[in-house]
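Quick question about two entries, pasted in order.
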Amino acid sequence: MIPSFFNELKRRPGWRVRDAGKRPPSLMDGDIVAASNPNHQHAGIVETGIYDSVINLPGPTSARRYGMFRPSGLNDMVSVSRVLFEAVLRIDYFARWVGT
């Protein structure tokens, strides 16, 4: 699912996508990052600051695994430090809106 999403972004004007772990020189607010491995695929949106964080976009697998899926609740999107995100999951994809 994650590879398909990023392949679709590659085809759309205005998006720059880096895959195979090719990291951009720096991360910016709104960058989309994702891990794609056979056991766990996960994506999030970067928020920069003193410590960069990733606003997790839990899909059904991770949401169920970590008990975060509550469609009627307000906590489906959880922000974690980027360092923690990368300690648990390797970032394989980076996408940035650069405009048309």
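Here is the second entry:
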Amino acid sequence: MNPEFTVHLLNPQGIEKAQELAKYFDEFLNYIKTVVPEGRYLSLVKTHLETASFYSKKGMAINPENQKA
């Protein structure tokens, strides 16, 4: 299988890191919502943060130290 499409099962350490990343992205978005009014720009921020969150978690998950053996 091409490496872009492999599934990585996380060990407890990896799960903890994924949850921590999600927490920080959530906190950042909540702050941004206090500064940027609803509308096009906030929608773009949400979309790009979602993308950034996905790639940060994928980057963390491909690290063998975060994977189940």
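Reply: The helical segments are 12-35, 40-61. Residues 10-63 form one domain. Hope that helps.
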